[in-house]
Amino acid sequence: MIIGISPLVDFAFKLMLGSPQHSGVTIHFLNSILVYQAKITHVEILNPFLGKDSEDDKLSVLDILATDEHGRLFNIEMQTSLSAGMSQRLTYYVSTVYVGQLHEGNQYSELRPAISICVLGQSMFPASTELHLDFRLRESSSGLILTDDLQIHLLQLKNLRVSAENVYHALPAERWAYFLRNADQLTPEEIRRMFPDEEIAEAAGVLEMIAQTPDQLMLYNARLKFQRDEEARLTQAGLEGEARGEARGEARGEARGEARGLKVGRITLLQELLGNRPSTVEEFAGYDEAQLNDLADQLQHQLRSRGE
Question: Model pTM?
Answer without folding.
Answer: 0.75
